[in-house]
């Protein structure tokens, strides 16, 4: 909350936040630091956080089948927090959002650090990267979690984000990516793929990997170089930023059709009702309206020799309804006539 208040005090927008507090001294870092990942999100632009309480420091969220597709059992919820891959390391946090009615799954990460690795340009070449072993295990877990979502919905919007503590071309990041995700760093020219500067070496440690469906909505991706290029820094990392245009799939209304009907005109000065059944091609969850109007054929609706009364109006189908009826009044006469017709048009 202190960070949210500071953003407002600096003239920024109002954010909401969610996280899960770690168990004391179980997530690495300095004693008592209890570093964790979390989310700040704005609710004034159509984004909604899907809250499913119950997640805690040691309970894993799972992918479950919901009425409209995959869901998180807990949101926010940690991903496999009891797995040895996360020993003395930050646990990933998954959360579910919606935008414009479209679900969005985000998995926020802070992988095991590179502490203990030999220098990139030290006396030992190639350098030994002992920390990579644990990151590879972490990467495999995240890739498997993404696979579970996509197994239920291949068109799911998924973003895997955070400090993966490895380079965009590393085995770790490629393991997270697998066959399913697109690393947005690779959409940039190689000279712009960095979010960190260590001893003069520009590196990409912070990543945004997205599912194919979400990648199709991408407008802009870049690293905001507000720290790594300056002596005075508020952080040693630069944030990646992406802009997506997520739109609802167009709702295609069911098609309406009208059946045939016939009747005898009857005698002069008498009328007969002719009923037409109007049918929808399928049920709809929304109210559906259909306009109708009659049109003269060999039977006419005007003058002294009118055969029927012209009609027009709106047919309203309540959610779930597929059949309605309309009635047209037929005017009788005493003449012997051939078969006559008129039409009813739907729009």
In a few lines, what is going on in this structure?
The chain is mainly beta. The protein has helices at 2-9, 132-152, 171-177, 212-215, and strands spanning 16-19, 38-41, 47-50, 63-66, 69-72, 77-78, 93-99, 102-110, 158-163, 182-183, 196-198, 201-203, 206-210, 218-223, 240-244, 256-258, 271-280, 288-296, 312-317, 323-331, 342-346.
Q: Domains counted in the coordinates: how many? A: 2
CATH architecture assignment name of the largest domain: 4-Layer Sandwich
- Cα(first) to Cα(last) distance is 54 Å
| Tally of strands | 21
Poorly predicted runs of 5 or more residues: none
Assign a percent range to the helix content.
10-25%
Give the averaged pLDDT, no decimals: 92
Main pleated-sheet profile: 7 strands, mixed
Kindly provide the radius of gyration, computed on alpha-carbon positions and rounded to a whole number of angstroms: 32 Å
CATH superfamily of the largest domain: Endonuclease/exonuclease/phosphatase
Query: Structural class of the secondary structure composition?
Result: mainly beta
CATH T-level topology of the largest domain:
Deoxyribonuclease I, Chain A
Given the structure, what is the number of helices?
4
CATH class of the largest domain: Alpha Beta
Strand content: 25-35%
H-E order: HEEEEEEEEHEHEEEEHEEEEEEEE
* Overall 3D form: elongated
């Amino acid at each position: 909350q202190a960070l949210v208040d500071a953003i407002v005090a600096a003239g920024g927008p109002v954010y909401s936040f969610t996280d899960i507090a770690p168990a004391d001294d179980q997530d690495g870092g300095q004693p008592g630091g209890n570093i964790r990942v979390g989310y700040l999100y704005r609710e004034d632009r159509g984004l909604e956080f899907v809250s499913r309480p119950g997640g805690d420091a040691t309970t894993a969220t799972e992918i479950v089948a919901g009425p409209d597709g995959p869901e998180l059992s807990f949101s926010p919820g940690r991903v496999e927090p009891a797995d040895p891959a996360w020993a003395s390391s930050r646990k990933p946090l998954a959360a579910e959002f919606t935008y414009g009615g479209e679900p969005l799954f985000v998995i926020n990460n802070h992988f095991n650090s590179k502490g203990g690795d030999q220098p990139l340009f030290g006396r030992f070449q190639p350098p030994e990267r002992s920390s990579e072993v644990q990151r590879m295990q972490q990467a495999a877990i995240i890739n498997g979690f993404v696979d579970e979502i996509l197994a239920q919905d291949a068109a799911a919007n998924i973003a895997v984000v955070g400090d993966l503590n490895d380079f965009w071309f590393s085995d770790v990041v490629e393991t997270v990516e697998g066959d399913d995700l697109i690393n947005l760093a690779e959409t940039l020219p190689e000279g712009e793929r960095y979010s960190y500067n260590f001893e003069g070496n520009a590196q990409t440690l912070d990543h945004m990997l997205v599912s194919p469906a979400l990648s199709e909505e991408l407008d802009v991706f870049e690293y905001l170089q507000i720290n790594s290029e300056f002596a005075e820094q508020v952080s040693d990392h630069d944030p990646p930023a992406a802009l997506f245009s997520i739109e609802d799939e167009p709702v295609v209304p069911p098609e309406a059709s009208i059946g045939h009907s016939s009747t005898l005109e009857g005698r002069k000065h008498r009328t007969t009702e002719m009923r037409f059944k109007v049918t929808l091609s399928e049920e709809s969850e929304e109210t559906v309206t259909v306009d109708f109007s009659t049109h003269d054929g060999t039977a006419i609706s005007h003058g002294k020799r009118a055969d029927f009364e012209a009609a027009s109006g709106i047919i309203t189908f309540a959610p779930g309804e597929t059949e309605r009826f309309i009635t047209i009044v037929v005017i009788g006469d005493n003449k012997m006539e051939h078969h006559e017709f008129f039409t009813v048009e739907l729009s």
